[in-house]
Specification:
Largest sheet of chain A: 6 strands, mixed
Strand order of the largest sheet of chain A: 5-6-7-3-8-9
Number of helices of chain B: 20
Number of strands of chain A: 9
Structural class of chain A: alpha/beta
Strand order of the largest sheet of chain B: 1-2
Number of domains of chain A: 2
Shape of chain B: elongated
CATH class of the largest domain in chain A: Alpha Beta
Radius of gyration of chain B: 30 Å
Strand content of chain A: 15-25%
Oligomer: heterodimer
Number of strands of chain B: 2
CATH architecture of the largest domain in chain A: 3-Layer(aba) Sandwich
Largest interface: A-B, 24 and 23 residues
Helix content of chain A: 25-40%
Order of helices and strands of chain A: EEEHEHEHHHEHEHEEH
Structural class of chain B: mainly alpha
Radius of gyration of chain A: 18 Å
């Protein structure tokens, strides 16, 4: 199988978004959005409902065509070559869709085989264990799995796909605090191997725990961006106040 | 393994893990096997029975003692239509049209003793033959196995999951098509094995068998494409199932049942009683050889006398009664031929109408293809009737010529004590009469008859494939 790929000039950042515009009629969904996620870093994208977070992920995955601006995944325009871009992305949606007639191991095996990254059972079970799925569930069909268990399977698949970009949409939604902490630990491992992680979330604590940068999205553009610094990384109280009041403003 | 094969394998795995799907598939296989076995046994039994009856009728005719030839004209004989090997696959109209005929002088009898007339009305709902199973049951089974192939992926969000692995829409649809095609192939396999068994039979024709195999493969492929098309267009599995069952009910059940009724209403066909009355009416106007004042036979008699240069029939060197019998048979045969041709023409118009409805129903087109290639359709029946009439006419005229040449006019009218003995012709004359042998068309002719139906099925397949290609582009766009 060959895919025509529209390769843009090389960029050091696996995720590059510049001045992205998207409007449905008079409603501007993305309004000059610019965002870069360097390799080996985690960026958390926060914002209220309708701020454009999910649309941003959808555009990166090639499901939504924007009207102007630049968007690239490892130099590939997802609108021009969605299959090419998707092969470089592991994506964990908020509502995980997996195959209920397959076991956890079979789901992982099937999805990895489709993406051309087939791995042995050992690697798959290691990833499932790392994602926190109990061993007795590995060979059970997903029909009886809880939302959290399904999410762990999806996380395992995302981990196994050694791609340069990981997109996460509300990844800790549905996970208990212990599982959330475990998941954050996994993200740190993923970052350590050079993956660019973009995480859309409402979970401020989780974002503050693992993100290198937190971007606040408001009305389709990044209104504020904070980098981790110092031993405390972020002033969570200040972030929370900003998030609660929506006081993020575009710097003058 | 390619992405298309991976998706196909997963779809097959889903079916294999669905108890209902497995039961449906096993039932289809069993049904096809039972149909193939029972149709095969039935066909062999009928072929043997007809051959035995044909032999008995021939023996009875040839075993007649010395007789007056005209007594033999009325004694007549039975002939039977032999069944070709492909009738085991698709018996077509054989069960409805009758398969034996009584041949006698002065009249053409219609075929008698169709199986349906000898059986309960249940038989009319469809015989269990491989053709019936593949035409009617297999599409329904494919629908139940495949209706959710794409709609389920859309409904549950796994279509996007597939695409996120870098899988294209075309690969998804290709994989599903491969899976459903594999199921269709496996479902049709017992019937195809039956076809191969038929191929080993004496008299089996390869070309029509290939056309049948191609036609049924295209038909099942068409259903696989239609199922995926509806499954792609309709986002919900329940709606896809309803739409497909409705499509099946209309194209496979309703139209094939309604079309012949519509054709029958549009082109009325005389029933047997009406035909008998019409023939009797025409016979009265045609001429009566027993009436000395009949103008036709008066002219005929004079022409015969003139030809031989004699004044009376007694002076003729041959038996005038035999000459009159020949002329009478010629006249009645031409009259019956005229009515038969009118009936054939009406039936052909009816079939033409049904075939036009077949443009809306691939099941009708396939049925037409299947019967034509098997030689069990209307064309095959007509071929039998025409050959039977040609044989009957030749037989009766042969007997009439015997009367004309071997029985003197004086003896033919004599009533003295020894007259009956003198009127008789030796029994070896009956034994010299050739037997009826139905000559079927060659393979290329049968295949040619099947081509219009094949063209319709292939046209449907091409159209549905084009629509599926368009639907594939929009797959998951909602």
């Amino acid at each position: 199988m060959t895919h025509a790929e529209t390769v843009m000039p090389p960029t050091p950042d696996p995720i590059l978004i510049e001045d992205l515009m998207l409007a449905y009629g008079a409603q501007r969904v993305l309004d000059g959005l610019s965002l870069r996620v360097p390799a080996g870093s985690i960026t958390a994208l926060l914002g209220g409902n309708g701020a454009g977070k999910s649309t941003t992920l959808s555009a990166l995955l090639g499901f939504t065509r924007t009207q102007s601006g630049t968007i690239a995944v490892c130099g590939i325009d997802p609108a021009a070559d969605p299959d090419g871009a998707r092969r470089r992305i592991a994506y964990l949606p908020e509502n995980v869709a997996l195959y209920e007639h397959l076991t956890a191991v079979e789901n992982a095996d099937y999805l990895l085989a489709l993406s051309g990254e087939r791995q042995g059972r050992g690697a798959i079970t290691d990833a499932l264990a790392a994602a926190g799925l109990q061993e007795r569930a590995w060979d059970q069909r997903l029909g009886g799995f809880s939302k959290g268990m399904r999410q762990k399977v999806a996380i395992a698949v995302a981990l196994l796909r050694r791609v340069p970009v990981l997109l996460l949409d509300e990844p800790t939604s549905g996970l208990d605090p212990r599982a959330t902490a475990d998941f954050n630990g996994l993200l740190v491992q993923v970052r350590a191997r050079g993956t660019a992680v973009l995480m859309v979330t409402h979970d401020l604590l989780s974002a503050a725990d693992v993100a290198d940068r937190i971007a606040f999205l408001e009305a389709g553009r990044v209104a504020h961006e904070v980098k981790a610094s110092g031993p405390d990384r972020f002033d969570v109280r200040a972030l929370h106040a900003r998030f609660q009041t929506g006081s993020a403003r575009i710097p003058a | 393994m390619s992405v298309v094969r991976l998706i196909a394998r997963d779809e097959l795995r889903l079916m294999a893990r669905n108890r209902v799907a497995v039961i449906a598939f096993v039932l289809l296989i069993l049904l096809t096997l039972v149909a193939a076995a029972s149709a095969w046994t039935h066909q062999r039994g009928i072929a043997t029975l007809r051959a035995r009856h044909a032999h008995a009728a021939e023996a009875a005719f040839k075993g007649q003692p010395d007789r007056h030839p005209h007594r033999m004209v009325h004694y007549g004989t039975f002939i039977f239509r032999p069944l070709g090997p492909l009738a085991a696959f698709d018996p077509g109209v054989d069960a409805f049209t009758g398969n034996s005929m009584f041949l006698e002088g002065h009249r053409q009898n219609s075929a008698n003793f169709g199986d349906v007339r000898q059986s309960s009305l249940l038989v009319r709902f469809g015989q269990l033959t491989p053709a019936f199973v593949l035409q009617v049951v297999a599409p329904l089974m494919l629908i139940f196995l495949g209706y959710g192939a794409l709609a389920r992926e859309t409904e549950r969000g796994t279509l996007r999951l597939l695409m996120l692995q870098g899988t294209s829409r075309g690969q998804v649809v290709g994989g599903k098509l491969l899976a459903l095609g594999t199921v269709a192939l496996l479902g049709g396999l017992p019937a195809m094995i039956g076809l191969v068994a038929i191929a080993a039979e004496p008299g089996a024709l390869a070309v029509p068998m290939l056309v049948i195999a191609l036609g049924y493969a295209a038909y099942l492929a068409l259903w696989a494409v239609l199922i995926l098309l509806v499954s792609a267009l309709v986002g919900r599995t329940r709606d896809a199932l309803l739409a497909l069952v409705a499509l099946w009910a209309v194209t496979v059940v309703l139209l094939p049942r309604v079309a012949p009724d519509l054709a029958g209403a549009a082109v009325p066909l005389r029933n047997r009683l009406q035909t008998e009355v019409a023939v009797a009416r025409d016979l009265r106007t045609m001429g009566d050889s027993h009436n000395p004042d009949d103008p036709h036979f008066a002219r005929f008699k004079q022409a015969v006398l003139d030809r031989y240069g004699v004044a009376t029939v007694e002076q003729l060197p041959i038996n005038y009664k035999g000459i009159v019998a020949i002329e009478g048979e010629r006249l009645t045969a031409s009259l019956y031929d005229r009515h038969a041709k009118a009936s054939y023409a009406a039936q052909a118009r009816q079939i033409g109408l049904v075939d036009r409805v077949g443009l809306l129903s691939p099941a009708i087109a396939l049925r037409s293809l299947s019967m034509a290639a098997a030689g069990t359709g209307f064309a095959g029946h007509r071929r039998f009737l025409e050959q039977a009439e040609a044989y009957r006419y030749a037989l009766v005229q042969r007997l009439n010529r015997m009367q004309m040449e071997a029985v003197s006019y004086a003896d033919d009218g004599a009533t003295d004590a020894g007259a009956d003995r003198r009127k008789r012709v030796a029994a070896h004359n009956w034994q010299a009469v050739p037997d009826f042998r139905f000559v079927g068309p060659d393979g290329h002719a049968l295949a040619g008859d099947a081509l219009p139906g094949l063209a319709v099925v292939l046209g449907w397949l091409a159209g549905a494939s084009g629509l599926l290609a368009l639907a594939t582009r929009r797959l998951g766009a909602r």
